[in-house]
Write a structure and sequence with these properties.
The protein is of the alpha+beta class. It folds into 2 domains: 6-157, Transferase(Phosphotransferase) domain 1 (Transferase(Phosphotransferase), domain 1, Orthogonal Bundle); 166-190, no CATH class. It has 6 helices and 7 strands. It has helices at residues 53-58, 63-78, 90-98, 111-119, 131-143, 154-157; strands at residues 6-7, 16-18, 24-26, 33-34, 171-172, 178-182, 187-189. α2 (63-78) runs antiparallel to α4. InterPro entries: Kinase-like_dom_sf, Prot_kinase_dom, RTK, Ser-Thr/Tyr_kinase_cat_dom, Tyr_kinase_AS, Tyr_kinase_cat_dom.
């Protein structure tokens, strides 16, 4: 997107598609704009939980605001799709983020990976990494330290109490079907 000069403005796990080869593709370009196209007043609901402070306060959208959202997307991935700032209302998120609050490192996330995601949330947009540097940083984490193992300790994910989505809750879909999460088998039972 950066090469094509597109600012997505809604990077989030819900807008990432994964194909059978585990190739991720970004979708939902409904809020996207050409870089340098100027600020536009958004209509409808805004993805406040994924928005950078300058977008929240001044309606500024650029590649640096997409980098911020990418950091939130990384947090979503590490927490297996949990809602960012789950215990806060949208207004509380706006206040907290603009006052410097950042999502905490999930206990099962390795510090190296958290540093990469946290760098996306720098208050000064010019201090956030570029997508090219993030790609290099994440590739280095995966390639150069195989002795570290996984960067998300999934074995401890379900054993700890957390503010994330509770997978043991009953899941109801639109058809009225439900499933309960089996912690031992780590799957849903019908």
């Amino acid at each position: 997107m950066y090469v094509l000069q597109i600012v997505h403005r809604d990077l989030a796990a819900r807008n990432v598609l994964v194909d059978h080869n585990k190739l991720c593709k970004i979708a939902d370009f409904g809020m996207s704009r050409c870089a340098g196209g100027g600020a536009r007043t958004a209509r409808g609901a805004l993805p406040v939980r994924w928005m950078a402070p300058e977008a929240l306060l001044y309606n500024v959208y650029n590649h640096q605001t997409d980098v911020w959202a990418f950091g939130i997307l990384l947090w979503e991935i590490v927490t297996l799709g949990s809602t960012p700032y789950a215990a806060m209302s949208g207004r509380e998120v706006l206040t907290a983020v603009t006052e410097g609050y950042r999502l905490e490192r999930p206990p099962h996330c390795k510090p190296q990976l958290y540093r990469a995601m946290h760098s996306c949330w720098h208050a000064d947009p010019s201090q956030r990494p570029t997508f090219a540097s993030l790609k290099a940083q994440l590739a280095e984490l995966l390639d150069n330290e195989p002795s570290e193992g996984n960067y998300v300790d999934l074995d401890s994910f379900y054993q700890e109490s957390s503010v994330y989505s509770d997978p043991s809750a009953i899941i109801n879909d639109e058809d009225g079907l439900s499933a309960e999460y089996d912690r031992e088998r780590r799957c849903f039972r019908e």
